[in-house]
Amino acid sequence: MSKQETVLSARSRRGLAYWQELATARELLFFLALRDILVKYKQAALGLAWAVLRPVLTTVVFTLVFGKIAGLSSGEIPYSLLVFSGMVPWLYFAGTVTECGNSLVTNSALITKVYFPRLVIPMSGVLANLVDLTITSLLLCALLFWFGTGLGWHIVLAPVVFAVLIMLTVGLGLLLAALNAKYRDVSFILPFLMTMGVYLSPIGFSSAVVPEKWRTLFGLNPIVGIIDGFRYSLFGDKYPFQPWTLGFSFAVAVVLIAIGVSYFRSAEREIVDIL
Questions:
Q1: d(CA 148, CA 127)
Q2: What is the crossing angle of helices 26-42 and 120-128, to 10°?
Q3: Cβ of 93: how many Cβ atoms within 10 Å?
């Protein structure tokens, strides 16, 4: 009895066939996402508690540095609540982009042994980190209740903001993942970029403290529109918000997804040889 063999040619992985193949790999995507969640907290004594402790401790530090020592104003919003609301989207963005950027290199043993759509690897990090995003969002809801901050109709903007956040994260993550497979310098640059992003984004402060003459330049950072849009969805008119910044973030996210997917697909053909 002869064995049947299935040959996966380059032609079968182009165009619509590629995306159909990716759809059939959804179980692998969920499995890798679950693996990433378990690996992240498996050897940690506090486990998932770190998803709570990290934003809480960071909020305490930022509140002391920016609110108490620097004396920056938070307007009508409690400073610790202002900081935590900025940490929710930032931690997801920074953590996921970093993991996606390193994903192909850290999974090189798996990639070089068996064929599957390589796009599954970085996308598993995007999916896995939604757990942390959910936990920090629930904690934020508890803080809003604690401070007696009621939510208005602006909250309908929150799903839009999260959608833009995920789009931006996916686009940048795919681009950096493919670049890091070719140029390992990316893995050294990423921590520096994320550290700089903390100070160039309105996480520990309100965008209102940025001088007017620098406000437009400051808004060209795509994460600014996401953080400000999220705060506006929570606090309404109590928080200053320039709608164009969120529109700009969306435009950047769309462009990054187009570039990221295109570059990742082109690099995918030689990833095995590179790794």
A1: 32
A2: 50
A3: 25
Residue 257 has φ and ψ, to the nearest 5°, of -65, -45
250 contacts 157 by C-beta, under 8 angstroms: no
Q: Measured between alpha carbons, how far is 23 from 11 in angstroms, rounded to an integer? A: 17
Q: What is the pLDDT of residues 177-215, one digit of tens each?
A: 999 988 888 888 898 999 899 889 999 889 988 888 899
Per residue in 103-144, pLDDT (tens digit) is: 988 888 888 887 788 889 999 999 999 988 999 999 999 999
Helix axes 79-106, 50-62, angle to 10 degrees: 130
Please check whether residue 228 is in contact with residue 202, taking contact to mean a CB–CB distance below 8 angstroms.
yes
Number of C-beta neighbours around residue 77 at 10 A: 19
**Residues 6 or more apart whose Cβ sits within 8 Å of residue 14:** none
Query: Where do runs of H (alpha helix) occur along 6-107?
Result: 15-24, 26-42, 50-62, 79-106
Number of neighbouring beta carbons within 10 Å of residue 48: 14
Of the candidates 19, 11, 10, the one whose C-alpha atom is nearest the C-alpha of residue 119 is 19
Asked if 274 and 129 count as a contact pair (C-beta separation under 8 A), the reply is: no
Q: How many CB atoms lie within 10 A of CB 240?
A: 16
- H helices of 63-157, in order, are 79-106, 108-111, 120-128, 130-146
